[in-house]
Specification:
Layout lengths: L8 H7 L8 E5 L5 H9 L4 E5 L3 H8 L9
Parallel strand pairs: 1-2
């Protein structure tokens, strides 16, 4: 995170060519939405959808802290 600015840089590097305005990104098994937020920040104008089946974790994902720039 300190070196690249985000977690799992190899995953983001593989996704980066597809993260462009108008793209749709589905984060399946989103957990707390780390890749969701990263994708939304890297691709303004795209649609990012997060799916999380665990109700307890989904509650955290659905109610992000105020500092989170993604709605």
């Amino acid at each position: 995170v300190l070196r690249e600015g985000y977690y799992e840089p190899e995953v983001i590097d593989a996704l980066r060519p597809f993260l462009r305005p108008g793209a749709v990104f589905w984060d399946v098994g989103a957990n707390i939405g780390l890749h969701t937020v990263t994708a939304a920040c890297l691709a303004p104008g795209s649609q990012v959808v997060a799916f999380e089946p665990n109700p307890a974790v989904f509650a955290r994902l659905a109610n992000p802290p105020p500092a989170n720039p993604v709605s």
